[in-house]
Every structure is written in C-alpha cells, then in structure tokens.
Amino acid sequence: MQFDTVIHGGTIATADYVARGDIGIRDGRIAALAETLTGGDRRIDAGGRIVMPGGIEAHAHIAQESSSGVMSADDYLSGSVSAAFGGNSSFIPFAAQHRGQSVDDVIATYDARAARSVIDYSYHLIISDPAPEVLEDQLPRAFERGITSFKVFMTYDLMNLGDGGMLDILTVAREHGAITMVHAENNDMVKWMNRKLADKGLTAPKYHAISRPELAEEEAINRAIQLAKLVDAPLFIVHVSTIGGAEIVRREKFNGAKLFAETCPQYLALTREDLDRPGVEGAKYICSPPLRDHATQDALWHHIGQGTFESVSSDHAPYRFDETGKFLNGRDAPYPKIANGMPGIAARLPYLFSEGVAKGRITLEQFVALSSTNAAKTFGCDRKGLIAPGTDADIAIWDPEARVTVTAADQHDNMDYTPFEGMELTGKPEIVMTRGAVIVENGELKAQEGQGRFVARQPVDLRGKPGFTAKELDPAQNFGAELR
Ligand code: URP
Ligand code: ZN
Ligand code: ZN
Ligand code: ZN
C-alpha cells in the first residue's frame, strides 16, 4: 500500500489503549495501523514519542464580541495557530448571537472570520434571543448545517435567558439531536453581591472572586440539570469550578441524566489569591466563574480521575492586559467593568499532560479522552478524536520528557500575558497534523492560513445515557399523555 506519510516506531495512545505501532496516512486519512509499515513519501521517526489524536478544543472564544462589546484578542488565524502549538488539530469556538440578531447572519459572519483558520473548526451557537423565528426556523437551519450544539447563559444581564427561555431551547435541541451547553451562575446572586460590594467601595480585582459565590454556581448547575431533566434534553455544563457543582454533576450523571461536563486548567492551577496580586495585576486572573481555592483544585483533580468530566477545556477568552482588552474602561475600572476571561488554548494540553499524566493523577488513555476523544463524541465529530483506519489523520506527536517553562511568547497567540507564566511543565507536542498535513513541527508553524475546514457535525452521542422522564410528562402515567 502507498502512503503519503508513515509515522514509525512511536507509542500510539488512544482513549482505549496504549501500544507500539506504525500509522500509515493517505489522502488525509489514517489508512493503516500495524506493528510495522514500510514505505511512505515521508517517514516520521516517532521513537520515544507518544502518538495520539490531536486535541479538540471544545471551549474557546475566538473573534467573538463579548456582550459588552469587547472583541477577543485572537482571531481565527492567531487563535488556531496558538491551538496548534498547544497540540490541537481542531477546535469548536463559539458563534455568538447578540439580542436582535438573526442566527443566519451570525453564522455567515463567523464563516467569514473562520476562513483564516489553520485547523478544522465548527461552532457552538450561543443564543441570547430565543425569539419564535429563532426557535422555529433559524436553529433547525443551523442544525441542518451541522452545528449541533447550542450554548446559553444563566448569568450576564445581556445574555441570561431565564428558565423559560432555557426550556424552549433545550426542547428544540432535544428534538433535533443537539446538545445545549450552559454557563451556570445565578445572575441575581451575583448582582446582589455586586451591590453589597459597591456600597462598601470594594471594587479592586480581588472582589471579583467574592462577587460570584460558589453557591451561585452550585445553585445554577442544579437548576440547569433539573430544567434539562424536565424535557429530557442533553445538557453540557461548561467550566465547572466548584466542589459542590462537581458533586451534583457526578450524582445526576450516575443517575442516568443526559449530562456532560468540563472543567478547565485555570481552576486546577490557580486560586482566588491570584486576583490579589500587586497593583492591577489581579485583572489578569478575572474570569467567570472565578478562581477558587486549593481544596477545590484537589477535589476537581479527583473528579477528573473518577470520570465526572468528559473534557478539560481551556475557555480561552483572550483580552490583553491593556486598554484594548482588560482595561477598555480604564486601568482603575472597578472589577465589574474589567473584561472577563483569560487565555489558555496553547497551555491546556501541556498543563494537563504534565500535571495529570506525568504526575500520575490520570492515565495516558484518560488524557486522550479528556483532551480529544470525548469532545469528538459529545459534539458529533465522527471522524476525529480517534486513531483508527478511515478517520481523519489529526495527530499530535509528543515528547513526554521535554521540560518546558511556560512563557507568554511561546503561546503564539495575540496576547501579552499568560496566567500560567513561569510554570515548569513536563511533555510537549512536537509535531501536530490536521488531516495528514503537518501544521507545527519542532516549534515552527508549517500551516497555511485558511487550510482549516468547517466540520459538519453529527447529533450528540447519547449511548449509555438513558435520560429521565418527568412523571407529569410520562405518557405511561394517566396524567401525562396529553402533553407528549
Ligand atoms: O470569564 C470568562 N470565561 N469569559 C468568557 C465568557 C464566558 O463566560 O464563557
Ligand atoms: Zn515501523
Ligand atoms: Zn462561560
Ligand atoms: Zn467561555
């Protein structure tokens, strides 16, 4: 058999197994797996290296205006390049509908932005305005195009839908096989805290963490899950940052709810003490939900090891440490007027590999599942996240022993800081491929702008998730038949 590329002599790692073997690639797909393969126009020697599915970044804000109108610092070129340097072969950023916008227009806008990407991409569609024409026509059309995930917010005044709006979207999503992602924080609890803090003049960055209590996340996670159960719709809780939230997810998941969840490196690596750094330095660490404490870090790692989370995602939300980003409202702005979010798309996998695999908290198979395979399954990328004949040759080759010190310059994004600055990590992606084309090799970009392709996605994979039927909507109960 003729191959374009053979990756030879590496240790292949998937979500299911780790074994020595060769990979033959032809026409952008994996064409053969065997103990030994001969030939190949190019042979890559992967001796001493780990060969795994390229990462799939399922939570990133790229070329996206926040609800307060701040544009993220990374566009689809810089964002995808940074992702590639971090071991990712594809990503699914958000396409955000702001109130009054048609979803068709939003998608057209993001299509134009995403044409610069060097890696394959899709979008999760953020919905802030579930008007009838959105629910009845525009969302089904988005779904037909292969956009099979929606995202809603329970917080931020300009995004928050209210429980009724959420039920409407969950219902449309269920009917089409889409999954709804949710940012779960109780909006009124946060606003009430903001008022208390403002009354006392407490507006420094560190009060951001105080203003968004753990209880606000726990309450909203629980509420989101009950809403989804009422209509038996699949739900994905993004950026779980609390012990209580993780425990609720775990309990409901093992009771059969159609539930998925992620956490992020910043909640494992940083704490709310980082918001109290000198001067306005703490603004770099403002994100929502906020950073918590050391006990939470330990508990979240435990939950990662135990399977509470499908994915560890970056929530890359890049706002520079200057007047275009964090300080759009001035360097002395009160915390509610400082842009929310931090970068991390390049650091996600090196951090998870180093602190997870190299430190023995998770297995290599779990690393692959958390970084790639589960995102592909959850979000319907059926040719990605695997090393198997017929799948896309989206592959990352890692040196598991490389020692790396994280610096902002090495993130290859448009940012002027990284919250992970100075961390000493073990393991590094050396070669990254998208559909068989090398895009990063030994610290150099090999990709062409625009070589990424839109991925039309399949419905969410609900195998192993029996779901839930509310008694009142159960046709088998004498009072439930009319509503089904
Ligand atoms: O603080 C964050 N995460 N900003 C990005 C928007 C969001 O809440 O996901
Ligand atoms: Zn060989
Ligand atoms: Zn969020
Ligand atoms: Zn986010």
UniProtKB/TrEMBL annotation:
Carbamylation allows a single lysine to coordinate two divalent metal cations. GO terms for molecular function: dihydropyrimidinase activity; metal ion binding. Its cofactor is Zn(2+). InterPro entries: Amidohydro-rel, Hydantoinase/dihydroPyrase, Metal-dep_hydrolase_composite, Metal_Hydrolase, Metallo-dep_Hydrolases_sf. Keywords: Hydrolase, Metal-binding. It is an enzyme of class 3 (hydrolase). SUPFAM superfamilies: Composite domain of metallo-dependent hydrolases, Metallo-dependent hydrolases. It comes from the Bacteria. The modification N6-carboxylysine is found at K151. Pfam families: Amidohydro_1 (PF01979). Its EC number is 3.5.2.2. One of its GO terms (cellular component) is cytosol. Residues 50-438 form the Amidohydrolase-related domain. NCBIfam families: D-hydantoinase (TIGR02033), PRK13404.1 (NF009941). Belongs to the metallo-dependent hydrolases superfamily. Hydantoinase/dihydropyrimidinase family. PANTHER family: COLLAPSIN RESPONSE MEDIATOR PROTEIN, HYDRANTOINASE/DIHYDROPYRIMIDINASE FAMILY MEMBER. This is Dihydropyrimidinase. It comes from Marinibacterium profundimaris.
